[in-house]
Write a structure and sequence with these properties.
SIS_PGI_1; glucose-6-phosphate isomerase activity; binds 6-O-phosphono-beta-D-fructofuranose; alpha/beta; carbohydrate derivative binding; five-stranded parallel β-sheet; 22 helices; Phosphoglucose_isomerase_CS; isomerase; Rossmann fold; 13 strands; 557 residues
């Protein structure tokens, strides 16, 4: 059980003044890599017949097989040693305590408080935040039940049949991913939609054919400043009013999720219909806060709470398990190894569960917005590459698309396979076929096929080179019994803490996102200029000016 009471920021470790790559623990890994890099996964497995049984760890209902990574026991010892030198245990404890570890924004990063049991104390600026979290969860549950049961009526007295989430980034990717992942648990008869893109097509297509009298919009924005979301919310308001013809209708067809009560009220949503979150929840870490209201409406409060229990089980494992047997720590350290030592610049996330189809997109924000940083938390240039590029598609679709490159391309791609032992919808032997593909792909990537083996199969000699698969491609395999709400919570928390672990090694602030600001500011300026039809000279570079003029010209035609 996580017990955390103090918020003494003085307990944060002093980041080392040495650049990461000059730390003795890093140099030891460089030397180690040099001494073992010529060895093939085939050899690792041949030398140790129990490797696949040994190099695994279980937590919160998840089983991680990491034996198909290019590592030895010594690699693991050295990686854990690096984590100790980088202060991982202290930084982890500081996060759980609520210390302001998001230093550039002077905030705590307390997503773990969102799933803390009610009797725990987590104090931020003198206030125990856990009762607030539970109060919001209870309000969400009450509201979700009223929508699901039909008790909540729209302006004309009809029950709500359509719920549309308007939000972007962390205010969409988590909820849409969870909604898709838990479709099996969704209430039949409720239509759920997501509008994120400022492209008008998104809203228009999401509302096409719907009756406003039966439609509820959840305007989800932590800041309530995001132009994409506010623009779509205004358009949704106009769409509703065009059908309902009465301003008073807004009260029963719009609710908000935000930290910003004033902006919600200014938009015209009654703060009584607002669900709160807090500054100490990062957008990309917020799917288990009120941002997940639509998830709760879809699957019901009980399943939502089961998802929180899965998050919590992984939190407790992360918080209390020695680093060498700690699943998120191991995943994070293996990611460092694959990225910084083997040179794998990208990570392919390959869920063999179609309902996890949005999981790679969700992880893109979680990973790359967190760790795509070029300076350390104290502003020095990083000395090693930071976040890998995350991408992926569900298996088996990916197999018929980009797997060719994984097997025979010239780049090394690290892979995370994710699978489940039982299907939500058993259909003849289809689930076995699906999982056979997962096992086959990780085996093929690791072991490949040699020219010698091909020759024994009497393959035409002239075609042998094209058929050789070199193997030696690293992968993790995550296995759980079923894709339940609990398993989903555990899976998301696993990646959250793995991302955190990597950020600690690089000594970056994984909880800010200053890089997204520049484009936002420029877009504001450009949209004003696009609206100006005079011939006033444009003030950008010659490429941007020409593109803008061409756009203005074609727009008129
Ligand atoms: O632009 C990036 C970002 O700030 C994300 O970090 C965030 O999840 C998203 O925009 C949406 O922000 P908000 O919930 O405040 O609308």
């Amino acid at each position: 059980m996580i017990r955390t009471e103090s918020s003494a920021s003085s307990r944060l470790p002093n980041p080392s003044t040495l650049p990461l790559i000059q730390l003795p623990a890093w140099q030891a890994l460089v030397d180690h890599h040099r001494s073992m890099s010529a060895r093939h996964l085939r050899q690792f497995f041949a030398d140790d017949p129990q490797r696949g049984e040994r190099l695994q760890v279980e937590a919160a209902g998840l089983y991680l097989d990491f034996s198909k990574n290019r590592i030895t026991d010594e690699t693991l010892t050295l990686l854990v040693d690096l984590a100790e030198h980088c202060g991982l245990r202290e930084r982890r404890d500081a996060m759980f305590r609520g210390d302001p570890i998001n230093t550039t924004e002077k905030r705590a990063a307390l997503h773990t408080a969102l799933r803390a049991p009610a009797d725990v104390n987590i104090v931020v600026e003198g206030v125990n935040v856990v009762p607030q979290v539970h109060a919001v969860l209870d309000r969400m549950a009450d509201f979700a039940e009223r929508i699901r049961s039909g008790e909540w009526r729209g302006h004309t007295g009809k029950p709500i049949r359509n719920v549309i989430n308007i939000g972007i980034g962390g205010s969409e990717l988590g909820p849409v991913m969870a909604y898709e992942a838990l479709r099996h648990y969704s209430q039949a008869g409720l239509h759920l939609g997501f509008v994120s893109n400022i492209d008008p097509n998104d809203l228009v297509e999401a509302t096409r054919g719907l009756e406003a009298a039966e439609t509820l919009f959840i305007v989800c924005s932590k800041s309530f400043h995001t132009i994409d979301t506010l623009t779509n919310a205004r358009a949704a308001r106009a769409w509703s009013l065009a059908q309902l013809g009465d301003e008073r209708a807004i009260a029963s067809h719009f609710v908000a999720v935000s930290t910003n009560t004033e902006a919600v009220a200014a938009f015209g949503i009654d703060p009584a219909h607002m669900f709160a979150l807090w500054d100490w929840v990062g957008g990309r870490y917020s799917m288990d806060s009120a941002i997940g209201l639509i998830t709760m409406i879809a699957v019901g409060p009980e399943h939502f709470r089961a998802m929180l229990a899965g998050f919590r089980a992984m939190d407790e494992h992360f918080h209390s398990t020695p680093l060498a047997r700690n699943m998120p720590v191991l995943m994070g350290l293996l990611a460092i190894w694959n990225n910084n030592f083997l040179g794998a610049e990208t990570l392919a996330v390959l869920p063999y569960a179609h309902d996890l189809k949005r999981f790679p997109a969700y992880l893109q924000q979680l990973t790359m917005e967190s760790n795509g940083k070029h300076v350390t938390a104290t502003g020095q240039a990083v000395s090693a590459s930071t976040s890998p590029i995350v991408w992926g598609e569900p298996g088996t679709n990916g197999q018929h698309s980009f797997f060719q490159l994984l097997h025979q391309g010239t780049r090394l791609v690290a892979c995370d396979f994710i699978g489940f032992s039982r299907s939500q919808n058993p259909l003849a032997d289809q689930h076995d076929l699906l999982m056979a593909n997962l096992f086959a792909q990780s085996e093929a990537l690791a072991f490949g096929k040699t020219a010698q083996a091909l020759m024994t199969e009497s393959v035409d000699e002239a075609r042998v080179a094209q058929r050789v698969c070199k193997g030696n491609r690293p992968s993790n395999t995550l296995l759980a019994e079923r894709l339940t709400p609990y398993a989903l919570g555990a899976l998301v928390a696993l990646y959250e803490h793995s991302v955190f672990t990597q950020g600690v090694i690089w000594n970056i602030d994984s909880f800010d996102q200053w890089g997204v600001e520049l484009g936002k500011v420029l877009a504001q300026r450009i949209v004003t200029e696009l609206a100006d039809t005079s011939d006033a000279p444009l003030t950008h570079d010659s490429s941007t000016n020409t593109l803008m003029r061409r756009y203005q010209g074609q727009r008129k035609e």
